[in-house]
Design goal:
six-stranded mixed β-sheet; globular; about 180 residues; 4 helices
Length: about 180
Amino acid sequence: MSNLYQQNIHMLITQKEIDDCVQRLADTISLDIKTNFMNNMPVFIIVMKGALFFSVDLLRKIQLPILFDTIEISSYKSSMISSGQIEIIKKESINIKEKNVFIIEDILDTGNSLKFLIDYYAQNGAASVKTIVLINKQKKHSHEIVPDFSGISVDDQFIVGYGMDINDLYRNLPYIGTFH
């Protein structure tokens, strides 16, 4: 990747730190599945596009039978400002009724998206809903959301890389960074 692409990005979380975090989460989630859900195969719902890189790495490390699908939602009216209104762009195709749903999200920021999805799956008949987030911003969330599985805590700053973006750019950085 050219230096021009990355010149204004300060590395916040290295690829190695991400890999270690993903392995730790996969181990913890695998144990939870073995303990609680072996009789009812879990369904992992990947929140697109941000959680794509994280979910691929995570799901490959869970060495148990699982189902997965994607959902795409949006709340952004511009590149960095959330409108607060969530809209479903693309629904999952798997029937989640009476299934144990694990929502995979890249970042817990305001909490609006995750709250929307928790309510959406509960209202649509999921047996249970658990949440997995890679990044948990240390700030007061709009909703009292505590992820069931959380990776790395960061200060309240705008970050990119490893799936997170600004105007769909920087998703492919192998690390997480912030602008400086």
